[in-house]
Every structure is written in structure tokens, then in C-alpha cells.
Amino acid sequence: MRCIANSVLVVAILSKISCYGVVEAVQWVNVYPDKINIVKGSISDENVNLLRTNVLKGAVDDPSTQIDFTPQAKTKFLGKFIFQPPPNLNLVAVSKIRFEVNGKVQALENQKWKFQIRNVAKRKWQSLSKTSTTTNVDRWGMWKRVTPIQSLDDYINGKGDIVIRLISNNDFDEIGIDYMNLSLGIEEALPTPSPPAPSPPTVISKGDSFVYDLPGKQSTYDKQVIFIDLFDTNKKDIASIRSMGKVVICYFSAGSLEDWRSDKSAFPKNAVGNALGEWPGEFWLDIMNDDVRTIMKARMDLAKNKGCHGVDPDNVDGFDNDTGFSILKWQTKDYIQFLASQAHERGLLIGLKNSAEIATQVEQYFDFAVVEECWEYNECCQYISFGTQMKPVFAIEYRSVKQKLCAKFENNGFSTNFANYALDQIWFCPEETRHLDASVSDKESSRKLAFCSASRRLRRTSTISIGSGMSFMLAYLLAM
Question: How far, in Å, CA of 16 to CA of 7, rounded?
Fold first, then answer.
């Protein structure tokens, strides 16, 4: 295997007219190959810099500006192009990739070349471009394809690279290339994220006990952190809880309309999407809608005026659900960063609710995490970074109502509640098991108790809401 190094980066700002007649800015960050790894076959030149400029046209070859790729006898060609996104790129804003190659293939009817990009998240190769009946033969021609993506993170491997491979279908193919470019597109150019706003003075700590009492069923509060419903709990009751030295976190849904809430009429119709699962009266919201964000600001004001120490905004994982809108991961990250900044501007703590797939990427913006059934879906490992930063992780398990799990949770720095779905019955870990190195039974061990198991990971795919609007996920699929 041979590696050729060098790279160059160009940033281009373009404009286009959308189908609605609105001029939109498109920022393309052009990244060129940094290396070529030849797995099978040979190349005519090892200078990867030759692929930086588009020079050749017509039928004329020029060995000084092109690289020829040739398979070995009885072996198909296989080579990999390594791209490195610049370290200062706002990855969350990239919503599409554009792949361009200026190539020339021989005039053979059965000659086929394919370019594929590695989707790390799904563990598979994804088609980018290939020869077809319309491909020019014995002439230079530009192959170009734009592909929408959920998140650029899905394509970046552990080394920080994006990998595109070139393969042939037989041992007598030959292709010449004199230009290759992978453009990273930002549909609505977002500014480089500013550092997260300072959090309010810390009033909660890793390992604090808590109760998730959204229905308001608890007669007394003997835990340190109390979760209550923002709308259903009045200012007097919040003051009473605070007078006992407790920390009050107020729940509201930031990603769905609940038709029993007092501000339901403020949501515009075009911002209301599909229903949440089988639960009537709750609908997904378009999180990129300005009116939705204005309403969330008002809810933050309500939380501050009522005396909440912090907020627990739910249903922020629309990118992984059938919302009725094309919500991408980068849009979700943008929205929850907006929520975090609004909370901190008001002196409120804020927690990340579920959203395991992006938890490590947005941890810096939050003061704690609230995770439902992370054990059931083997997602607990995704929140370890919160504990590393001494931030609390409040875990709630609904189906694993077994206190034998307490040691596993508590020893990993998680605070734990076990409850039924209605939240009118809640069990707590005994104090003697908190932060102790207690063992678990063989039966429990057989259920893959390791937080960071390398085995298959289940993920949530449909949302169910219960009680005072609290959401959890019921159906699941195997994550790729």
C-alpha cells in the first residue's frame, strides 16, 4: 500500500435562486485529496497535487497533469482517496456534499468504474458516481453529483478522515483523472459557533439524587433535585420546594405542540407536523421556524418568572423521527444550542434530553443530561462525557425496574430513578448502593450490563408521550 500526501483547501461563496424566488447563500468548502492509498492495482504518478486543477478537455492526454489508474492482471482495481476536513469547519452546518471528478475512460462497453464514500455511522459504502451509458469515452468529462446528508459526522472516521474509494469491475479497465474535489455545502451559511455562554452558578452536582415528578404525585420531596412540569406547577409551589433547599428543574416540550398547553394557539399552522406516535393532541414542530423559537423564548421567561433553577426541554430529537419536516442533525444541533443560550442568558440551567446520537457533540452547551431508558437501548455510554465534566446524568428506566442495576448506574456517576410509564410509581436506589463497587447477578450480567458494550446498539424510532407530556421511545431498530 502506498500513501501520497498533500492537500489544499478553497472556500467559495455562491448564490442561487431557490424555487420560491428567494436568493440563498451557499457556502462550499472545497477539500482535495490528502492521500491516495492503492490497495490493488497501480497508478502512473504519485503526486496527488495533480488532482487540484481541472485542465484537460477533449481527447488529449497529458501525463504531466493527470494520473492513470490501472488494475493488475486478474484483479480489479481498488484505491482509496483520503480527505481531511479543515479543523475550523462548522461540521454541524454541512447539509450536502458535492463530488466532482474530471475523468477519461476507454471505449469499452463493459468498462465500469465506481466512486463510493464510506458512511462510518452505517458501516457501509455509499455510491457517489459511476460510469454509465451517457459517460464520455476516450474523452475528458466532468462527473458531478450532489448528495444531501444528515450529518457530516456520519462520514468522518476515528482519524478525522473522509474516505472515498475507486473500484473497477474487471482487470483490463483504465481510467485517467486530472481533477478531484469534495465540496462540503452549507445551504444556509451559519456563522462559526461561538463558545457556549457561561452556565449559571452551579447548584447541582454529579451524583445528586433526584425525583422525576412531572405528574406532581409526590407528597414530600426528600431528594436533592426535583423535576416538575413548567405549566402545571404554580409559582407558590415552586417557592415552597425551593424553601426546602431543593433544586427545581421545570419540564416543557421544545420539539412538539401539546394541544392542552395554554400557549398552543401561538404556534403557526405551517410549523405543526405529524402526530407523535399514537398519542392524540401532540404534534412535531418545525424547529427552524422563527415563531417556534419565539415561543420557546417565552417559555424560558415563564420558567425564570416562576422561580425554576433550570429547564428540561423535551422532544429535541426530531432528526430521528417522522416529523413531517426534513429535520437534519445539524439543524437539531443548531436548535438545541439556541435553547441552551436562551436558558443561560436568563440564568437558568438546562439539560439535554435523550438525543444519544449527538450527546457527545453538544455536551459543552448543557449543564446536565436527562436520559430515559438508556439501559434498555444500550445508549448509556453516549452520556459518559457529561460525568467526565462533573455534570449530572439523571437516568430513568421504565422497563428495567430492578434495583440490582443501581450499582452499575451509580458507579458510572449516574443518578437513577426506576418508574412505571405513568410516573405515578417511582423507585429509588438505596443509599447504601450509591457509589459502591457492588456486583450484579449472573442473570443481569448476561444482559450485557457494560455501559460501553461493543455489541449491537438499539435505537428509538417512534415517540410516545405520557403523563404531563414526558416522552419516551417504544419501538426500536438495530443501529447500523
Answer: 28
**28 in Cβ contact with 182 (< 8 Å):** no
Print burial letters for 184-217: b (CB count within 10 Å at least 16), e (below 16): bbbbeebeeeeeeeebbeeebebbebbbbbbbee
For the stretch 454-472, what's the b/e string if a residue is b when 16 or more beta carbons lie within 10 angstroms of its beta carbon? Answer: eeebebbeebbbbbbbbbb
**C-beta of residue 383 within 8 angstroms of C-beta of residue 355:** no
297, 439 contact by CB (below 8 A): no
Q: Fill in the DSSP letter of residue 137.
A: B
154 dihedral zone (left: phi>0; alpha: psi -120 to 50; beta): alpha
Q: Could you read off the pLDDT tens digit of each residue along the chain, which spans 480 residues?
A: 333 333 434 444 444 333 333 334 567 888 999 899 999 999 999 888 889 888 888 888 998 889 999 998 888 999 999 998 886 677 777 888 999 999 988 766 567 889 999 999 889 999 988 876 556 678 888 888 888 888 888 898 878 889 999 998 887 778 999 999 999 988 654 445 556 666 676 689 998 999 999 998 887 898 999 999 999 999 999 999 999 999 999 999 999 999 999 999 999 999 999 999 867 899 999 999 999 999 999 999 999 999 999 999 999 988 888 899 988 888 898 999 999 999 999 999 999 999 888 888 899 999 999 999 888 888 888 898 898 889 999 999 887 656 567 878 888 889 988 888 778 788 888 764 544 333 333 333 333 345 555 433 344 443 333 333 333 333 332 222
CA distances from 194 to 91, 153, 202, 341, 433 (A): 13, 19, 22, 10, 41
Strands 368-372 and 349-353: parallel
Q: In this structure, which amino acid lies at residue 168?
A: S
